[in-house]
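Inputs:
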Amino acid sequence: MTENIVELQAISKSYATRRGLFGRRVPVRAVDEVSLSLAKGQTLALVGESGSGKSTTGRVALGLERADTGCVLFRGTELPAADTRAWRRMRAQMQMIYQDPLAALDRRLTVLDQVREPLDIHEIGSASERNDKALAMLGAVGLNASHAGSLPSELSGGQRQRAVLARALIMRPELLICDEPVSALDVSIQAQVVNLLMDLQKEMHLSILFISHDLKVVRQISQRMAVMYLGRIVECGDTKDLLANPAHPYTKALVSAVPVAGGRTRERIILTGEPPNPAARPTGCAFHPRCPVARPQCASVSPAVTTLSNGRSVACHAVEIAPTFMGAEA
Amino acid sequence: MTVQHPIPAAPASKIPATLSPGRLLTIENLTVGFNGVRVLRGIDLTLARGEALGVVGESGSGKSVTWLAALGLLPKTAEVSGSVRLDEDELLGLHASRLNRVRGGRVAMIFQDPSSALNPVIRIGRQIGEVLARHQGMSGASVRAEAKRLFDLVGLPDSARRIDAYPHELSGGQNQRVMIAMALAGKPDVLIADEPTTALDATIQAQILDLLTTIRKETGMALVLISHDLGVVSETCERIMVMYAGGIVETAPSNLIFETPRHPYTQGLLAAVPPFEGAVERLVPIEGQVPHPANMPTGCAFAPRCSRHMSECEKIVPPLKSIAAGRASACLAEEGAQAERHSSPIKSMSA
Ligand SMILES: Nc1ncnc2c1ncn2[C@@H]1O[C@H](COP(=O)(O)OP(=O)(O)OP(=O)(O)O)[C@@H](O)[C@H]1O
Ligand SMILES: Nc1ncnc2c1ncn2[C@@H]1O[C@H](COP(=O)(O)OP(=O)(O)OP(=O)(O)O)[C@@H](O)[C@H]1O
Ligand code: SF4
Ligand SMILES: [Mg+2]
Ligand SMILES: [Mg+2]
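Outputs:
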């Protein structure tokens, strides 16, 4: 059995939101009993509806936020509480890259200073060695010496994201959680960064949780993927197989909507109905108000997760009753 | 909404605006420099009413700077020259108070960085309310009702409650939809959308792009869609403009550019896209690096990375030239191929 670097066991996380200053507090269940595991040296992609809880799941996996219930195991042991010494020690081995590079960078420091900063803090090597290391890492992500002296505001969006990536990788972490890391990059740089991440993964045995909306990139970079909808995992399995033969009706719509340059080959499934509201979760299957194949039972009974013969897990009544159809197609 | 503006081979300024009644926005020889370094090297383009123009290109090529300059949103230290006209009115150098009326009103922009567009300490309902008050003259309860309507339009779930949320209480994609709603609030004639859907899943992305197309068809709003996702621009725009190192290198109708990209940079860009079908192979980025604006090559900016480059490429800056109806490319090799095709039409295009 391969070792898991991270395991999420039935984690849930709610936020309280209120209407107006004195309004009633309403809980929003951002993540609802999510279980996931990431094998060492592998990439697990997390995709799904915007607002379905992917970033929250990532933050919980890092211990940046505590789950209300459920637990997070890092290399088999429970993650220590945030801001304790034990957690800080572990944190050095886990890095996160965010969606918005400008928010992740210190606007007053040059790119080189920011990338070198973790080495400075941990006093690794001499000052000139640290500089060389930081410059080499910047080179690896496609930034040159003249970018190194720039402030974040002087760089383009893609250049900023590469600076963020260089800083995350400089400490050679074991686990990298990427939240939309390449969506600000042009396709050529994206190709470089994807290749780079895959090379570093091999070389450093890096494990990656890759949160993304770009299913083309997900297909390229990940071995396994999980699809979220309104706080829950609705489908999980081998990436190529899942994208070629999506089983859950939401995944089918998602895959069909991927824009392809120069005309699409599959017909787009257009979802109708309101986007889901986490503060008023639909009964039964949360997807039923928009589901093209919903049946009466879907409005009242929440579908359990079924594991199909090819290792795919799906939570859908329509799939439950025909558990063999996937195997037949695959 | 036909493609009616191939970039003219002659300077655009020689064509009086009155000849093209559909022309809404005209940019002529727009240049931008920072600390004496040119990052935008003379952009010419026109935008017709109701048109959808897709802008793609290397990161750092000036896609955002073009429109930030046009709207007077660059820092004061930026050196901007050229002309940007909305109908007959020159926007460059316009007084700040008048420019403020145009921005968010007749011309709206959805910014690439959410953190620079949304104020973190103000509730989103108030932020959109300010736009509605300023550009639509609304007040009181109608502001709240219109804000809710716009949030519903962009598919923000639970909009009645979310009006009172702060940006940090929303997911990345929810904030992105708030920005889209804010841009639509001023009922713009031109919407400049800089990577508007990168934080959205494919189903919502498709819904938003459909929404923008519907508004465009109904109101004649022109759309400039800047995106790294070639699939997104391919499906939404009629005309595509490809930028490299501060200049336009190719422009063509959307369907043609993906079938037969002509500029070597465009070809490289298309080859780098991960396929959604077939075998997974190592991706093929374009060799080399984008030149830094401070050490731009003397000739074609793409020459050091170009597989078709010839000795002239290092000396002459290739002008953007018409190569077919509605198509233009800035490439010396293409020009040669073009001449050859003319002299002996039977000869295969071996370039
Ligand atoms: N601090 C917070 N306070 C209140 N609600 C929050 C907070 N953070 C997240 N939420 C809510 O929790 C839900 C999940 O948010 P999350 O950011 O995890 O989604 P996501 O899947 O990452 O979405 P996206 O793809 O748009 O980035 C959303 O409905 C969001 O509004
Ligand atoms: N405020 C600034 N000061 C100095 N240089 C700047 C400033 N803003 C942009 N630049 C430079 O101008 C060039 C063009 O930047 P721009 O943001 O337009 O790129 P872009 O094409 O939008 O790239 P991306 O796809 O990464 O967003 C880049 O080289 C960038 O470093
Ligand atoms: S459980 Fe029912 S509503 Fe939910 S996805 Fe399956 S068929 Fe559709
Ligand atoms: Mg997110
Ligand atoms: Mg940009």
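Remarks. The longest strand of chain A covers residues 4-18. Residues A 248-249, 285, 287-288, 291, 293-294, 298, 303, 316-318 surround iron/sulfur cluster (ligand 3) (CB under 6 Å).
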